[in-house]
Structures are given as structure tokens and as C-alpha cells.
Amino acid sequence: SGCHLVLVPAGVPRKPGMDRADLLKVNIGIAQGIIEACAKHCPDAILGLIVNPVNSVVPAMAELYRQKGLDASKICGVTTLDGVRANKFVHEITGAPLNTIDVPVIGGHAGATILPLFSQDKAASSIP
Length: 128
Prior knowledge:
By secondary structure, this protein is of the alpha/beta class.
């Protein structure tokens, strides 16, 4: 109790043969237990969810907060890992130092919705 910020790095990675629906089912169950505890012990804290698929888990947990009469805008998704992966990809191709690469990644956490904006980074935009 008394927390202002709670970071929730939870869930399992997708395993071979596991589709995104399977991943969602498992990870939403894991996140729900943690969010329930936060609702009880630190309902005013901002919650940063690092749980994939983040674009599906965050709205579900926000709805859980709403149903409890809590401020759903306190639930945020953290997608730093997607950006780190994009930066590493650019580094491996270009050799540019990692600390100079910053590829913004937008959209959801699915093959059809995630979009690294390579054109917005100097090193990445040099990839033919």
C-alpha cells in the first residue's frame, strides 16, 4: 500500500505451437491476479503493464478497474521491449551503436498490428 507506481512484468512468452489467443488466455489470467491485488492494496497507483499481448491485456485490466469503480486511466501498457528488439535489429544490420538508435514502435503486439517506424531513426533509415 502507499505505492504511486507499480510495474507489472508478468506473463509467459509465446511457446512453439502457441497462438496469440493461447498467450492471451494464459497472460490475462496472470495479470488479473496482480491487478486484483493492486486494486485492493494500492488503488490510486499508476500500473504499468509489461504483459503481452499488451494491446489486449491493458483494455481487459482497465475494464476490471472500471467494474471496481476505480480509475481505469491508471492502467498503462509498457511496450519498451518491442522498441529494444527493433533497435537491436537495426544495430545488427548497420553496426550503429545501440545508444544512438531509437526506432519508435507503434500499434499492437501482433504481427499484423505492430509497426516499427524505421524511417524515424537515422541508422534504420539507411537500411536499403
